[in-house]
User: What shape does this take?
Amino acid sequence: MTTLDADLRRAAAADPAKEALVAGARRMSFAELDAAASALGARLHALGVGRGERVAVLAPNGAEAAVAIYGTLRAGAAFVPLNPTIKADKLAYVLRDCDAAAVVVDARLAPLAEAARADAPRRPVLVSPDDTRTGRLRAGSAPLSVDLAAIVYTSGSTGRPKGVTLTHANMAFAAGAIVEYLEMDAEDRILCVVPLSFDYGLYQLLMCVRVGATLVLERGFAFPGRVLELLREERVSGLPAVPTIFQVLTAALGERAPDLPHLRFLTNTAAALAPPTIDALRAAFPRARLYSMYGLTECKRVSWLAPEQLDARPESVGIPIPGTEAWVADEHGEPLPAGEVGELLVRGAHVMQGYWNDPDATAQRLRPGRWPWERVLATGDLFRADEEGYLYFVGRRDDIIKSRGEKVAPREVEAVLHAAEGVRMAAVLGVPDPLLGEAIVAYVVPQEGAALTPAALRRHCAAHLEDYMVPARVELREALPTTPNGKVDRRALAREAGETPAAR
Assistant: This one.
């Protein structure tokens, strides 16, 4: 079984001069990326970072983030990718929780990391991804496939982030399976506008390195015109995106169909594409095959829908990815007949090892499998399957909101709202949205005499939460419905507000 680090060594040996990364004005060959990873790995060793330790990566999309990831792996450590919009208190929690030995940080985010590390008992060292001062890689630092490769933090139902632990074998298997059904090879050039801190973006890097393809990194999607320029100028063959991006992109095009002869596939996840968006994408990019997919951080990818099936099954997320099994189960884990709704269970080499420092949450999510030593993943999502085994998402069983492909815990947003001056009560719901999957909506009861406004509350949230966690809408109310034990009754709130929350 290969490791992620071995993928880079192999790509650099096969075609050293081949472009590995295009990030703004910076271009890196595979030989240059490999050398930069070795230099950073040696620097981490010189600073005392050993094999198996955790290194946080705090950088926007760019060559620096890619070097940070592979430099950490080259040192034999595990990387912890973090959203560049993370706030200091949450960053401090993550650094404490994973006992980070170091933070590889972009210069502009160094003050944030400095403030956060002050609360970490270990006080992890701060390292620039471009730091190439003298150092040597220690003998025996090369990782094994069973070693920890990454901890990816995702929101938990308690509001406390949970660290998904993934080995090299987990991640290499997932990347290989996706590469297989997308039929990727070294000639591909993939444009990534989603953050590398988001596993959808992260795997674009891992897959490109695995097959020796080129990754074109863009820091965001603020300017659709810029994305269209990159598609053309960089001869992009693959564009991974979410419904929001696709809709904005097709709206910007209008009736024009750009001449993009190299673009051969589009991939979508986070939420199902609405039929009008599918039609608009086909009209705008007639040569490109459109893949619908479903996944979650705990195993990366679960299913994919072949483009040829899109018309016949537009609401389906497809069949299990190569080399895996997924089935709709009852409360005992037994398969249910076609058409019946139950929890989706997943079996395969991509299933996580568990949640870092959280055995209770791990026991809830990983269930006994076919063999005594095996654990299968209980996704927490409700599904049904048709007679041919195609899967259909129905809703979520827990309170977690999935917006823009990211998991959001209502309690985390509510805690920030409660901290705002003048707030007496607050509740957050996930409301189905054709672009976001679920839109985050906050309902707030002001204290008597408080002069609150929705705009001010959204600004307060933006100052304390990552961008994707900020409510899309805030409503002020005189009261919120409660259960007999005094807790907010979310279902009653949804009925009063005229919303239809995702199935739980």
In short: Residues 1-165 form a domain with the Rossmann fold fold (CATH 3.40.50.980). The first strand starts at residue 19 and ends at 23. The first helix runs from residue 4 to 14. The chain has 14 helices and 26 strands.
